[in-house]
Amino acid sequence: MWTLEFIGVAERARGKGLTRVLMSRIEADLSPSALFLTTADPRNVPMYQHLGFTVHRALEMDGLSISAMSRGSHLDGENVNSKVVAA
After folding, report:
1. Which of 22, 54, 72, 87 is deepest in the core (most CB within 10 A)?
2. How many whole angstroms separate alpha carbon 32 and alpha carbon 17?
3. Residue 36: exposure state from Cβ atoms within 10 A (0-12, 13-18, ≥19)
4. Pfam families of this UniProt entry (predicted)?
């Protein structure tokens, strides 16, 4: 399993499919491994869901809404709550 730490697209470039291109490039090097990520921006959740990620856990911590998400066949149905670490 791999963890996606940071990915971003400049505001002016959003809505043009660049995130999908970046994710495809990343996953081409990782396939067929599962990919895990967390996001503290609730606006990102629908985008990642559109890319095939599933929310495994959402939590509130210090005013942040954090969602733990993954995509990959060996995580289907797996509870990854134990892998969400609050620091």
Report:
1. 72
2. 22
3. buried
4. Acetyltransf_10 (PF13673)
**DSSP conformational letter for 1:** -
Lookup result for tokens 């967390």:
38
Neighbours of 53 (CB within 10 A): 23
Q: Which CATH architecture has domain 2-83?
A: 3-Layer(aba) Sandwich (3.40)
pTM of the model: 0.70
The answer to whether 45 and 39 have CB atoms below 8 angstroms apart is yes
Q: How far apart are CA 79 and CA 18, in angstroms?
A: 30
**pLDDT tens, 25-69?**
888 887 667 889 999 999 999 999 999 999 999 999 898 999 999
Q: Is 7's pLDDT higher than 60?
A: yes
What six digits make up the tokens of 82?
Answer: 């134990």
